[in-house]
Write a structure and sequence with these properties.
The complex is a heterodimer. Helices cover 37% and strands 18% of the residues of chain A. Chain A is of the alpha/beta class. Chain A folds into two domains: 4-122 and 215-229, Thiolase/Chalcone synthase (Peroxisomal Thiolase, Chain A, domain 1, 3-Layer(aba) Sandwich), CATH 3.40.47.10; 133-211 and 241-385, 3-Layer(aba) Sandwich (Peroxisomal Thiolase, Chain A, domain 1), CATH 3.40.47. The chains are: A alpha/beta, B mainly beta. The complex binds coenzyme A and zinc ion (ZN). Coenzyme A is lined by residues 88, 123, 127, 130, 146-147, 187, 202, 208-209, 211-214, 289, 337 of chain A.
Chain lengths: 390, 129
């Protein structure tokens, strides 16, 4: 296998972008990644696109074709484009496919993109489209929603480990704070623990401010063989590990409801591949679709013992300047969660951190970063480790 | 969901019929045709569950799923059946009665409806034992 590096990144603003269409968004993200990398369109060997539900959100399938066409790479250059779907992990998986195609030696220059336009439909349709990430026949039809599934994880975590609503809220408050420093974030306002606890109950014990929002957005990265990376940039960001693991699609089939075992295994595979441990990671973007998901993630990835995630978050250990900064971008909660785009945006954030261009969010001395992207309630997990050093 | 799609699973939904692997003895609900432990060595047959079990965890859903708006807020739980497997289902009782570890048993009830198609889904819910 060949070493792989990220040489270009691009991201639209995330949010309710009523004046922008699905294709406007991915064209903007893709173009800025290509410009940032300095490659020419002719050099691109292939594209992978993460998109969860074009069919439900914008009544559009065949997303690979649409994207490559409107990126201006179809009619003349006929560049192959493949859509990748794993619910909210679609972006992370698209990135992984791009990395694998370069690592294998098949391609030299690949664009990995992610896009979702969720606000063109009503809230009930959006909720129903997201519920399709769970088992429709045995969870959805029983009345389960996505917030409802994570609420059941939260309830048991509280019962077993004494985690409190305030500790969950602390993850949201921290992520909103980080979001104030991220120009692309959907929410750039500070919030307080009380605001979280007083926001509408969505699925007990999760309030509205425990939930990631419904968002539009797109993001893209350019990955190349590490051997040619310095042709394009002075600071390539090297891929040290790309790992993926599966778990049961239904939450009720999990051995322990408070552990996403797909996250645990994807994490272990990534550490092994990189020859690293959690202590080597300087910051991590985790999949905080709900506050409890961030707590589980920092435990499942080995940063904290099972059950300690809530207390550690409340104590500020995951803030910028803390022991392990988590979600410097603002995470899914504050930066926004256009599902297909999220996994790529996480890599964009880590690349900025490793390049030292994260502005006010910059983690001092950032050398190694991790991304963690989850599909559904834990059916799919994708973990990447990136480093400034090859 | 189309009529055929729902109809296909009616015996399982109405009567809690799952499966059992006779090779290793494991019970499956929702039904599985492939035993994850024994895979091709497994021999699967139908199994009717008694419908008694225990609440592993729960939530009260306020922002309802599509077709369930009329029922909100409603209690949703993961229930571990006495035979072993766990499933997701609604529990009919007061919100403040819900508790981890509470004993429940299955009852036959309306699940939800699709207003545009006039379809009503029936199936299994749970009540305190
Ligand atoms: C939490 C949720 C139910 C709120 O939806 P809602 O009640 O319809 O909220 P509305 O769209 O009416 O928004 C009301 C206001 O709150 C804001 N808001 C909405 N969701 C928010 C959130 N999660 N956090 C903070 N603010 C939020 C809106 O911007 C809006 O503000 P405005 O009045 O200033 O415009 C919805 O965001 C949701 O379902 N989130 C989960 C998404 C999900 O499951 N993703 C997949 C996870 S894997
Ligand atoms: Zn078996």
């Amino acid at each position: 296998m060949r070493d792989v590096a990220i040489i270009g990144i691009g991201c639209t603003n995330f949010g309710e972008l009523w004046d922008r269409s699905f294709r406007d968004l991915f064209v903007e993200a893709g173009l800025s990644a290509i410009e940032d990398s300095g490659i020419q369109g002719e050099e691109i060997d292939s594209m992978y696109v993460g998109n969860m539900s074009g069919g439900r959100f914008v009544e559009q399938e065949h997303i690979g074709s649409l994207i490559v066409d409107y990126a201006g790479l179809a009619s003349n250059l006929h560049i192959p484009a493949t859509r990748v779907e794993a619910a909210c992990a679609s972006g992370g998986l698209a990135l992984r496919q791009a990395i694998l195609s370069v690592a294998s030696g098949y391609d030299n220059v690949v664009v990995a993109a992610g896009a979702e336009k969720m606000t063109d439909v009503g809230m009930d349709t959006a909720t129903d489209a997201l519920a399709a990430a769970a088992d429709r026949e045995w969870e959805g039809i029983m009345g389960a929603t996505f917030p409802g599934l994570y609420a059941m994880i939260a309830r048991l975590h509280m019962h077993t480990y004494g985690t409190t609503s305030e500790q969950l809220a602390a993850a949201s408050v921290k992520n909103h704070h980080n979001g104030t420093m991220n120009p692309i974030a959907q929410f750039k306002n500070e919030i307080s623990i009380d605001m979280v606890l007083n926001s509408n109950m969505v699925a007990n014990p999760l309030h509205m401010f425990d939930c990631s929002p419904i968002s539009d957005g797109a993001s893209a990265v350019v990955v190349v063989a590490a051997d040619i990376a310095r042709k394009y940039t002075d600071i390539p960001v090297y891929v040290k590990a790309s790992a993926q693991a599966s778990g049961s699609i239904s939450l009720h089939d999990r051995a322990d409801i408070t552990t996403l075992d797909a996250s645990v295994v994807a994490g272990q595979r990534a550490y092994k591949m990189a020859g690293m441990t959690p202590d080597d990671i300087d910051m991590v973007e985790v999949h905080d679709c709900f506050t409890i998901a961030e707590i589980c993630a920092i435990e499942d990835l080995g940063f904290f013992r099972k059950g300690d995630g809530g207390r550690a978050t409340e104590a500020g250990e995951t803030a910028i300047g803390g022991r392990i900064p988590v979600n410097t971008s603002g995470g899914l909660k504050a930066c926004g969660h256009p599902v297909g785009a999220t996994g790529i945006k996480q890599a964009v954030e880590i690349t900025q951190q490793l390049r030292g261009t994260a502005g006010k969010r910059q983690v001092d001395g950032a050398e190694v970063g991790m991304t963690h992207n989850v599909g559904g309630s834990g059916g799919t997990a994708v973990v990447h480790i990136f480093s400034r050093n090859r | 969901m189309t009529v055929a799609r729902f109809w296909r699973k009616i015996p399982h939904r109405y009567n809690l019929i799952g499966t059992r692997c006779t090779t290793c003895g494991e019970h499956y609900f929702p039904p599985r045709q492939m035993c994850p432990t024994c895979r091709r060595e497994g021999k699967i047959e139908d199994h009717k569950f008694r419908g008694n079990g225990e609440v592993v965890t729960y939530t009260v859903i306020h922002t309802a799923a599509k077709g369930y708006e009329m029922q909100a807020p409603y209690n949703l739980a993961i229930i571990k059946l006495d035979e072993g497997p766990s499933l997701t289902g609604q529990v009919i009782c007061r919100q403040d009665e819900m508790e981890i570890g509470m004993r429940v048993r299955s009852v036959f009830r309306k699940l939800g409806e699709e207003s545009n198609k006039g379809m009503i889904y029936y199936g299994t819910k749970f009540i305190p034992e």
